[in-house]
Structures are given as structure tokens and as C-alpha cells.
């Protein structure tokens, strides 16, 4: 979605972790799902709807427990279970529904900017490098924000505000990150700075692309990422959306 | 090779696994060769032809056993030994001679299409990303088939037909894969669907490239891949070539 | 820096290994620094200059020992300590000051050629792929030399001359490498050929890019790479610079 004369782009990946059915009731992970033996999966193949549990063997292979075989290549994902408790939101796939929600909220009032919804980022990537080419070659936009969730660590805590990341496996442009921090300070937005050794967002794919695009992860901390029951603090989400609205205008 | 007004491209890598001579008779692998202490290697340096065995030490370093030193940087590959036995073909480097054979057979009758022979894919890649740029920017072609061999697993068996891959380390476009499956069904071609957790074909490099090109691996199962004696079933090859001929027309 | 009608480009990365301050006095590595508990680091945050030691805990986490906290995201690097002893040069960050020195010396007399100074290559890369696009699309240059340092091994020794690399994790074009070797031979330049299984230079990023650019690492052996006290032989550097001057003319 392109609005007016864009100067900045927002990336939110739409794909989710889960499983693809292999042979003999085995399933292979799509992305890196965090499961236990109570996880419930749903999906659909040519024979109809599927809802089933799973079983993990001693070699960490995962099998579905559906009463019939499931066609090869069928995708299964966590059964939805969305609820709120005080300031906490619980659901599978807050990663990256919250990043998408943030982008859609922006769209209501955005005058200039690009919003990209990508697929494929949980499994090897590829869409983001194509979108980076598009934003640079077609729209001459050289700044990107990654609207996504991040891990809770000893320095990143739920309730402490929007997360601005200074380093994960990649290091974003210090100039661009500083300008975002300054904007947050000026506007009294609660934020926390992330510095990590590992992990990577869609920004890594922008970094590796042959286009000179600055990027920065700006998101929220999320508990139990990639599990069937992720959770996050609503105040962080409010701060995140406030910051995006200012940055995109 | 470009024919007529291409709508689809075929990728077949030409390079092979093997060794490059290092220092003190040591050799480093090119790609991931599967060897034992009876493997025979051949090559040539400035001093002449080479045919030799190899020796593996306790740290899994590999040394050649040629009677003289071999110049640094000399490439050695498996000694050819091609034979047929019933429906089975035996030879080193069926990976990817069979992919190339399939592409050359196509060329006889192809009216519209591109065939790419790439080098470098066994060792880090790089050619395919360049060819993807070429096919997209110069020929506006956005569909690619990977003509190559794949591993035998508990779901992929020699003699069961051409392999259409739904997932390896990367996931191809479901729409494109479905259209290939449909074509195979309509034309009574024997096929088997592959769903794996690991492994990657040249399609992975297309996926990571900044160009929106759909890809799918369509190939044959091969025994003892990367060893001096790979083998495959000729019926699978026939089915593979039949499917390619229909898809490219 | 672009001179005349360039036919070849020289890449020298400018960034260094070091640390970024995380939370609770912890630091995360930038690149892969090789440290011990006597390493001294320097840097600066909003509160002033920093010079401090470090401490490594039983989980190989690294902490600074500065008397006060340091702001999140602050970068620390090795304290400079440059000295010469006979034919040996000692200093942190010879990787890649020597590659840069070589490129700057070239610039004095260069008539046709491009020199690229990149940042980001110690931490995930990304600049080189952009520069490869630039050199190919804007300047139509398809040959690149990587001006950098390499490891000492059982085949690569300091004092044995400039290193021309035939293989690391990637394999450069044999035709291009052969032409460089020939040039070195014709001009009586002392050189040694490198063949390694692992490791990668900026050439790897050129290889993976979607542009058909030949590359070759041409550099010097360096002791204790990424430590606070790297060292190298000045004669190797002289030979390296002589070879570059001939290749670029």
C-alpha cells in the first residue's frame, strides 16, 4: 500500500510458524514452532477440515494424531485462542498479528508512506529482498521500519514501552537509529533500547540486499514467541503505534 | 539458451563435487563429496595427468596418495564409471548430468522457453542469483523449474516417478506447485510429492534473490548422492522428461 | 573513489571488530573479537570518554569493568598500540587498516579504477552487495580485488609474499585468478597461493550478488587476527602493493 509521496516504508510479515505434513503422519516444522504435547493444530486438506494434537518421538520428530492420514504438503497451524486479561493480550500468532495491526492502524491516517505485508519471512525469507528492490527502484524510498515482535530478555521487559533495536545479528545505521530515538524522546514516548547478539528481523534481509536502504526494528516485547500462546502488554503496543504515527508523518 | 518467447526457465547446474589440492598433499572438499578409502580421483596439473586414491586421517582431513606432489589449487574429481543394469543407471555425477540431460532433451523440441546451465551451485552458489536477474529483467520470465536430483527418503522412492517438491529448506509458491501437480495428474504422469525439513536446490537462491520469480524443484530420486557411484531409475527419468515437455509447451 | 575509465575495482572494508554495550555491564561482540582478560577497550558515551578492561564469566559472557555504567548501544574497540620491530608491524586493526593503506597508496598514481571503502563487513555484510550493484550497473566494471588480510596456516606464512586466494568458502573464477597469477609471475612478485576450506572475504558477498562480477582475494597473511595485537610482515605488504599497482594499470 503506497500513500502520497512516500519517504519511509513499514514492513510487517504476515506468515506464521506451523507445520507441513510429510509422510507416515510425520510433520516438518515451518519456521521454528515452539510446541509441547498439548498443542492443538488445525488445517484443511481435500478430504475436509482437520483438528488434531501431536506426538513427539525420542528423536524429536513430530507426528500428528489425526484419526486419518493427511495429504502430503498440507499446512497446519495453531488453533486460535484469543483473550485479554487486564493489560495483557493472549493469542497464538501475535507474531506478527501485532505488527500487522500496527501497520493497519497507521494506514487510517497515513498521508505519505509505504506499507509492505510480506510472506515467507518465517521460512528462509525472500519476499523482503524483492520488496526492498521495489521500494528503492520504483519509489526511491531509502528508510524502512520493521513492525514486529521481539524476545523478552534481561534488558527488554513487557510494560517498559516500545522496543527500538540497536543491534541483533545485524547492526542498523547508527544515524537512522539515533534519529528514531530522538523522536521518541522529544515526544515523551516510553521506549527501551535493545542490544542483542543473535536473532534477526526482516531488517537483516534489507541489510544483505544490494540496495542502500536504512532499516530499524521498532516493535514490542512478546512472551513465549512462536508458541501456541504468545502474550504481550497492551501499553507497549500503544507506545509503538504512537511512535510509528509520528515517524511516518 | 533462449527459445521463442519464453514464459518459463529451466535451471540445471553443471558443476560437480570433488576436491581442490591444498598444501602437503592435503585436499579440501569442493561441495560435499561422500567418499571412502577406495575412491579414485582424476585430474590434471601442469606436470601432467593425475589418477590417485585418497587417505583420511583421524581428524577427517583428506590426503591424496599420488606418487608426486600436486600443484596447489588443482581440482580432482571422481573417475568416470558409467554403466546400466536393467532399469538402473550407475555413474558418478548423475547429479547433475541427469538434470542437464533432461534440459538438453527438451531443447530438441522447445519452442518457447529458457534453459540455464549454471556453475558454482555445489560451492556457495552465486550463478543462479545472476541468472534470476537476467531472466526477470531481460526476458520478463517469472517461472522457473529446477532440473536436478534429490535424496531418497522414507517418502521418496526410486521407481515411483518424477519428484515434485512442496518444501525443502524453502517453500515454493503454493499456486505454482499446485499448477504443476495438476498438469501431472491430467497427463497421467507418475509423480511423488516431496516434503522435507532440510536440503535446498537452486530454487533457494531464486527465493532469496530480489526478483519475484516462482520456482519449483521437479526432478528424480538418486541413490548415494555425491558419492563416486550414484544411481537412479530410468523410468523416473522418462516421467520427468515427459512432465517438463508438457510444462514448457 | 572513481578514477578515469575504470576496468577493475578494489574493495577494502573499514569496519573493525569490537563490542557493543548491552545491559547490566554485559557487552555483545561486534564481528568476532579474539580477547583475553588483559584486553583494554576504549570508547565514548554521552557521559564522556571510556577506557576499561573486561571480564569473562563461566558462560563466556563478557562484561566491561568500567567504574560506572555505560549507555546501551555504546561501541567499544581495542586501545590503539602501534609499533614496529624490524620487518614486523604490530597493532590492533591491521585488519583492515593494511587493506585500506594498500588502496590509498594505489590512489596516488591510479589512472583508471575504482576504490570502495565499505563498512559492515565484520558484522553480517550488506555494503558490498550494494557496491557490487553500483560498480556493475553504473560503471560496467566486472572485476574486483579484495584488499584485506588472511590467516596464517600451514601453507600461508608471513614473509612468503602476497597471498592470492584460489579458494575459501567460495571459489573465484579460475580464469580471473590465473590471469592474476600470471601477472605476478611475469613481474617477479613473491606470492603464495591460498586454498582453504573455510573462511570468506568480501568476495563471498560479490559471489552471492545477482551481478556477474569476477573477484579474487589478494592480500597479506596476518598473525592473531581480530586480537588487540595483530602483526604482519612489511615485505608482504610491499609485494602486495606492487602487484595491485600493476593489476590496476
Describe this structure in words.
Three copies of one chain form a homotrimer. By secondary structure, chain A is an alpha/beta fold. Chain A contains five helices and 18 strands. In chain A, strands 1, 2, 12, 13, 14, 15, 16 and 17 form an eight-stranded mixed beta sheet that branches. In chain A, strands 6-5-9-3-4-8-7 form a seven-stranded antiparallel beta sheet, with no helix packed on it. A three-stranded antiparallel beta sheet of chain A has the order 10-11-18. In chain A, α1 crosses α5 (234-247). The longest helix of chain A is centred in the middle third of the chain and has 16 residues, at 94-109. Chain A starts with a strand and ends with a helix. The A-B interface holds A 20-24, 28-30, 72-73, 120, 123-126, 129-130, 132-133, 209-211 and B 153-155, 166-167, 169-171, 177, 193, 195-197, 204, 207-212.
Q: What is this entry, summarized?
A:
Chain A is an alpha/beta fold and 249 residues long. Chain A is built from five helices and 18 strands. At the A-B interface, strand 4 and helix 2 of A face helix 4 of B.
Amino acid at each position: 500500500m503506497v500513500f502520497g509521496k512516500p519517504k519511509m516504508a513499514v514492513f510487517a510479515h504476515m506468515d506464521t510458524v506451523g507445520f507441513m505434513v510429510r509422510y507416515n503422519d510425520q510433520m516438518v516444522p515451518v519456521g521454528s514452532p515452539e510446541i509441547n504435547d498439548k498443542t492443538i493444530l488445525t488445517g484443511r486438506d481435500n478430504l475436509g477440515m482437520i483438528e488434531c494434537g501431536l506426538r513427539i518421538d525420542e528423536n524429536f520428530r513430530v507426528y500428528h494424531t489425526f484419526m486419518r492420514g493427511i495429504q502430503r504438503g498440507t499446512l497446519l497451524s495453531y488453533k486460535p485462542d484469543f483473550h485479554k486479561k487486564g493489560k495483557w493480550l493472549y493469542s497464538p500468532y501475535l507474531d506478527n498479528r501485532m505488527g500487522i495491526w500496527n501497520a493497519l492502524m497507521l494506514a487510517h491516517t497515513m498521508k505519505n508512506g509505504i506499507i509492505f505485508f510480506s510472506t515467507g519471512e518465517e521460512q528462509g525469507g525472500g519476499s523482503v529482498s524483492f520488496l526492498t528492490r521495489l521500494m528503492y527502484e520504483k519509489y526511491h524510498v531509502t528508510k524502512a521500519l520493521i513492525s514486529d515482535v521481539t524476545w523478552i530478555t534481561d534488558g527488554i521487559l513487557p510494560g517498559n514501552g516500545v522496543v527500538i533495536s540497536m543491534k541483533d545479528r545485524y547492526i542498523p545505521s547508527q544515524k537512522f537509529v539515533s534519529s528514531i530515538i530522538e523522536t521518541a524522546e522529544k515526544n515523551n514516548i516510553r521506549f527501551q533500547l535493545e542490544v542483542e547478539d543473535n536473532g534477526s528481523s526482516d531488517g537483516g534481509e534489507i541489510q544483505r540486499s544490494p540496495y542502500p536502504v536504512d532499516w530499524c526494528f521498532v516493535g514490542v516485547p512478546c512472551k513465549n514467541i512462536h508458541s501456541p500462546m504468545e502474550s504481550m502488554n497492551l501499553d507497549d503496543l500503544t507506545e509503538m503505534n504512537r511512535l510509528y504515527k509520528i515517524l511516518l508523518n
